[in-house]
Design brief:
The chain is an alpha/beta fold and 286 residues long. It contains ten helices and twelve strands.
């Protein structure tokens, strides 16, 4: 068992309820691999303001990962929020820097890195995003601000959410935005135009692993297909896309990358990605 002293740097994931043990396992594996005097724990939190007040009060509390339902509320209780994350409207990371709490997000950058690591070019490409929820907002704004897609095409069944995201992206970036209510016809049309497809809905997630939003015949071999769902490791959507000759990017890459970025914000050193990946895959393949 690790010895925790007053010099140990504390990090935590806060949520209600805390959904799983993946984050502590991944981060602690990284600390152990680099022999860092850090420890990462999971905490159930009801009062976000009080929790962040505790972070301020504890000199060795280095940072937090923030999960649903606290990603919006946490923004109200930090000193600074990165500009892109203020546009997104939520954060998933808090870093205790001196006497300030800095809020930022790593989901969007984690997704962008997953695409880049897979050799997928997004600059100058037509990108279809399926879904307009929180993950889609993070990825959409990151693409619009940090890359240069030729067009972002948004489809969702929730008209209010869809139109809101489309309006915010148009107001907050120069990226051309096209949005439409998700129907079989709009899906087929969008798939016929898109060069990169990013699936941002929970369809296909365990236990409903036989579900997919996209009929297999809609995929084209030259497309890259990214599914942010990571349980199962290969969703039906990805299996269908792979069978059609597409390049596929599994959601586990985004999950790992967002944790790696948090690790580096907390510690200030490059993350031991291989050690963190090994622990993540051990948990997901059990």
């Amino acid at each position: 068992m690790r010895t925790i002293s007053t010099s140990t740097q504390l990090c935590a994931v806060i949520g209600n309820p805390v959904g799983h043990s993946l984050s502590p396992a991944i981060h602690n594996a990284g600390y152990e691999a680099l022999d860092l005097d850090f420890v990462y724990i999971a905490c159930r939190v009801e009062d976000v303001a009080a929790a962040l007040g505790g972070v301020r009060a504890l000199g060795n509390f280095r940072g937090l990962s923030v999960t649903i339902p606290h990603k919006i509320e946490a923004m109200k209780h930090v000193d600074e929020v990165a500009k892109v994350d203020r546009a997104i409207g939520s954060i998933n990371t808090v870093v205790h820097e001196g006497d300030k709490l800095l809020g930022l997000g790593t989901d969007g950058p984690g997704a962008l890195k997953a695409l880049a690591d897979a050799g997928v070019t997004v600059d100058g490409r037509r990108i279809l995003m399926l879904g307009a929820g929180g993950a889609a907002r993070a990825i959409g704004f990151t693409l619009a601000w940090k890359a240069a897609p030729a067009e972002l095409i948004l489809l969702d069944i929730n008209e209010e959410m869809l139109r809101g995201l489309a309006a915010d992206l148009r107001a907050g970036s120069a990226t051309p935005i096209m949005d439409a209510i998700l129907t079989p016809d709009t899906l087929e049309d969008a798939l016929g135009r898109a060069e990169v497809v990013i699936h941002c809905t929970p369809i296909g997630m365990h236990p409903k692993v036989d579900a997919s939003l996209v009929p297999a015949e809609f995929f084209r071999p030259e497309q890259a297909v990214f599914d942010i769902v990571y349980t199962p490791l290969e969703t039906k959507l990805l299996a269908d896309a792979r069978a059609r000759g597409c390049r596929v990017i599994p959601g586990v890459e985004m999950f790992l990358n967002q944790a790696v970025l948090q690790f580096e914000y907390f510690t200030g050193v490059p993350a031991p990605i291989d050690a963190m990946r090994r622990v993540l895959m051990e948990h997901l393949t059990r």
